[in-house]
Design goal:
This protein is of the alpha+beta class. Helices cover about 35% and strands about 20% of the residues. The longest helix has 26 residues. It is elongated.
Length: about 400
Amino acid sequence: MKSDLDRLMQERDIDAFVIIGSENENTDRNYLTNSAHASATVVKKRGQEAVLIVSAMEIDEAKKSGLTVYTMQDFDLFTIMQKHAGKQEEVFKEYWTNIFDKFEISGRVAFYGTASVMGTWRTLNRFQRLFGERIELVEDEDPNIFSVARRTKDAHEIEQLREAGKRSGAAMREVREWLSQHRAEGEFVFNSDGEPLTIGDVKRYLWHKLMDYGMEDVGGTVIFSQGYDAALPHSRGEAEQQLRLGQTIIFDLFPRIMGGGYFHDMTRTWCIGYAPKEVEEAYHVVMHAFAQSLEAMTLGEPIRDIQNMVNSIFEEHGHPTHNSHPGTNEGYTHSIGHGLGLDVHESPGMSGYASNESVFEAGDVVTIEPGLYYPSKEWGIRIEDTVYMSATGEVINLTDCPYDLIVTLNG
């Protein structure tokens, strides 16, 4: 939580941190600024509130963060630029001297942000070269202070995550209902005009619905894959592919609240019209692993135990895993889930490796997503919900959408 940052800075001997201003999206900055729309530089000295430094045209947006906001001219940037007439290093030195003096920044300073590798290298070298007698650049640990703080969510964050789940589930329900209104001819699905219904059609319908609910599919990366592609866990599906009866469809939806808000992550597996017996049997195994995972989540217990338990369940039913068949691309081929928040993938990690020493903590928001994949048989199955670990150890499901495998056509 944000309240943990000063403690983490103390533990890691960080006197101050700076998030370099940039127009690139930065979820650490979003975290501190409540996703206020400003390409702000953030400065925080240990024991003091973070402050923002923005251009004058962004000051009103930046104030929505609730933090104290300064403009660049409060530190004489434009006067300095005129004074040094394009000498970038002199401008940099005087401008940052003014900032460091204002907030009494010295000692061990950590820098964060998003920029090109070369741009970052150049900036950090300038700080080292020009301020080496005043500050020591800190190499933060992995995971860094933001990853640790952002892992456990406070009540306000949980409400936003709950809302994201509500909207995402509603959008997926609408897609399922819309699909059911189409009709089959032979083994394929068609719309009311007799035209083939494709994966691209489904995604376009989904994107409109997400907008209606104030959600966005960032980068258009939603997974809606069918048949062989469903057996490839991260295949997004082919837009031109026509929907076909009896083939598995993996629908992995991970949108966020518009404007840099919190994500939700959920997956359902569907078969239109009917499901082959082998798929039905495997689906029941996946649902069993899913239910057992939710039941086994325990406050203070090792996270890796869930992955290892799921490996055992699948192996008992004759499916390979990375535990029994290292490197396999069939059977259960990934970890049981991941943390979720302002990024789709956050702490905690949920691998079964012995090196994963994390235990479940109050405030954890994670996905649970067991699956089975068989490219050789051209089918894949995955079920995923986002869940929250409460302070009392209760596992609260933030996803609301049916698990029914078969989508019946009514058109």
